[in-house]
Structure formats: structure tokens, C-alpha cells
């Protein structure tokens, strides 16, 4: 079973993506009812979003 990526740092960016777990509000709300395959896809999405934010932050400095 895929565990929730929630890190209890619930702050959203301008795109409504949580900066703690990098899920959208829809992904957070619906996590509990997603099938395992969808949860794994959400995890991949969060990893991609985190990488994109890290890259953007590194260019900003």
C-alpha cells in the first residue's frame, strides 16, 4: 500500500500545489479513494513537481 506523501507542511503555491508534499488540492482531497495505481502515479507527479521547483529555485539564486 502506498503511503500518503503528506509531510504536514500545508502551504500552497500560486498554482495550488502543496509545498510540503507537492500534490494538487484534488490529489490531496481524493487520495483516500484512489486505487493503488493512481496513488503511484500521484507520487511520480509529486517527484516531478519537486524537481521542477528545485530547478526553478536554483536558477533564482
Care to give the gist of this entry?
Helices cover 51% and strands 0% of the residues. It is globular. The chain has helices spanning 25-30, 36-60.
Structure notes:
The protein has one domain. Helix content is 51%, strand content 0%. It has helices at 25-30, 36-60. It has two helices and no strands.
Task: Write the topology of this structure.
Layout: H1 25-30, H2 36-60
Low-confidence stretches: none
Strand content: under 5%
Shape: globular
Q: How many H/I helices?
A: 2
Task: Give the strand tally.
Answer: 0
Radius of gyration: 12 Å
The helix content is 40-55%
The structural domain count equals 1
Q: pLDDT average, as an integer?
A: 94
Distance between the termini: 38 Å
Query: Which structural class should the secondary elements be placed in?
Result: mainly alpha
**Major pleated sheet:** none
The helix/strand order is: HH
Amino acid at each position: 500500500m502506498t503511503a500518503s506523501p503528506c509531510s504536514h507542511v500545508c502551504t500552497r503555491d500560486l498554482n495550488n500545489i502543496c509545498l510540503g508534499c507537492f500534490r494538487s488540492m484534488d490529489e490531496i482531497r481524493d487520495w483516500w479513494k484512489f486505487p493503488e495505481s493512481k496513488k503511484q502515479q500521484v507520487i511520480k507527479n509529486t517527484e516531478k513537481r519537486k524537481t521542477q521547483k528545485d530547478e526553478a529555485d536554483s536558477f533564482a539564486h
